[in-house]
Structure formats: structure tokens, C-alpha cells
Amino acid sequence: VQLVESGGDLVQPGGSLRLSCAASGFVISNYYMSWVRQAPGKGPEWVSNINPADGSTDYADSVKGRFTISGDTAKNTVYLQMNSLKPEDTALYYCASSHYRSYSEYRAGYQYWGQGTRVTVST
Fold first, then answer.
1. Rounded distance, CA 85 to CA 107, Å?
2. Mean pLDDT, to the nearest integer, of 63-88?
3. Which of 19, 33, 91, 103 could form a cystine bridge with 80, CB 3.0-4.6 A?
4. What pLDDT, on a 0 to 100 scale, did the predictor assign at position 19?
5. How far apart (Å, rounded) are the C-alpha atoms in residues 82 and 122?
């Protein structure tokens, strides 16, 4: 079982990035998928989740209206489209899966957890 995140980069404020989370060893449509981030020197923060089977989503207030989570069941991959990026979005972004819709910011709240991809928003 593996979750592999990619797409992190250095981007200027106001810019956009799309993160990908490729799952192997399990089918994402049988799980809820989440993104959790941890900024340097700060605690983790739950960002968003999706039920890939029906497309239902939820977002933290800090990203609502700027980020969009989506899932491609054919590719067994989840995405996080991030627009209007701010310096405070700088963080290591993790992909995670759970059997229920999780709002946890901690690894213990999920069955599977990726290695993370780094996003830096700076001039």
C-alpha cells in the first residue's frame, strides 16, 4: 500500500499549483481521501477531504474558495488544485486515506499516509 504525493514547488503569491496523490495497493473509491498540511514550526492542519465514490467534498475555512479537491477513480489518484496561493499556505502537504470522513490533522486518524510534497509560496 502506498500514497505518493507530487506537484509541490516554489510559487509566487497569487499563483497556482496542482498536487497529485497516486494510490497503489488499494482502491480510493473504497476510502475517504484527505489532504493535511504542516507549516514550518507549526502544528498540522487538516485541509480538505473527498469521497471519491460520490465526489462529495469538504474544506477547511482557511482554504475554502481557493482550493479544490478532486479524485480520478480510473487513475486511482486524488488531486488538490490550489489557487490564489498565500505565503501562509507554505507547508508540507500530505495525502491520507480513511474509512470515514476524517477531519483529523494527525497521522493516527488515517489508515494510510503519504510522504508529503513541499509547497513554498514566496517572492
1. 25
2. 98
3. 19
4. 98
5. 15
